[in-house]
Amino acid sequence: MHQLKGKRILLGITGGIAAYKAAVLLRLLRLHDADVRVVMTRNACEFITPLTMQALSGKPVHTELLDLETESAMGHIDLARWADLILIAPASANFIARYSHGFAEDLLSTLCLATTAPVFVAPAMNQQMWLNPATGENLEKIKSRGITVLGPAAGEQACGENGPGRMLEAEDIVALVAKSFTSNILSGLRLLVTAGPTREAIDPVRYISNRSSGRMGYAVANAALEAGAEVSLVSGPVSLPVPDRAEVIQVTSAQEMYNAVMQKIKNTDIFISAAAVADYSVETIAVQKIKKSNASLELSLTKNPDILAEVAALQSPPFTVGFAAETEDLKANAQTKLQSKKLDMIAANQVGADLGFDSEMNALTVFWGNEQKELQQATKTRLAKTLITLIAEQYNEKNINKTH
Prior knowledge:
Structural class: alpha/beta
Number of strands: 19
Largest sheet: 8 strands, mixed
Strand content: 15-25%
Shape: elongated
Number of helices: 13
CATH superfamily of the largest domain: CoaB-like
CATH class of the largest domain: Alpha Beta
CATH architecture of the largest domain: 3-Layer(aba) Sandwich
Distance between the termini: 40 Å
Number of domains: 2
Strand order of the largest sheet: 12-11-8-13-16-17-18-19
CATH topology of the largest domain: Rossmann fold
């Protein structure tokens, strides 16, 4: 289940005998390389201890809304933004009832209201409680808000009765969660993605570069793979795991990235330029290390090729998506870049204040034609998935318009 690798899953546990299954569920999620944090209600702590879940997750378990160690930094909001998906398993009848009415009286219910991530609930309760019309009404309410309900199964229950209301087995829940990260919206398409910084040599030991970590580009590549695309990733120097199933081409300089892109671009349907390519390189690279002998040093710089503009200017260009990292006038600068380079779409982000470069969080404003869409602050993994969906929609719309 490669879809779970690196995904941030917030596991919520509510009160009920099925809470013991959450331990198995957590172990399986970790086994598939998901990054899991656990939130438990007070009633859940009566059935399984936070210490057990902490030992299995390797991280502190969150139980209180007003935790003095985290609330100085609005810890519950940070957790809500951190998650790529919130999974509540087991979800008791009481929790579902409170959730359906928008209560925020404990940490878990507050997180569910504060998040923009998908929320999955796996109900577990006595079969009569499950069949009660009130439970049915509450479930319909949360489903109408986009919440995914997993199960329940039918069978023997802890109370000795037999019927619907058993929480799905951990293996089944993990499979459904993994499937949620996969779509076929880019099936059959070939994507070329650039990511990371470039390094422009000054001498054998020094170079010009920038603060890009490559996380956004790698997240886009992974999201495209999950959407069914065939992905080639041209990557500058980063310290990130190579995406499974992607063809990865490692480069260092802007010229090397340009050469790699131009070699692959002919067979590309969608080009996404997420790399932070250096605008300039040193005109003459010193053969030996430059010694610190003078009070000042002058470097003569020459302009690097504009990879994004050259791809968009091809006779038969792919659907071309650029990125714009801005410190000011984000909208105006992004729209200027969109129009001057004749791009199909551009994703702009404000850098600084723990966003953008060298951060796990980001927020994007996406522009195309005369349209724009705000993608609120979230993990780069979640933003990439939303961005890929938007790109797929606009790619299909452009091709439909071509045929009419």
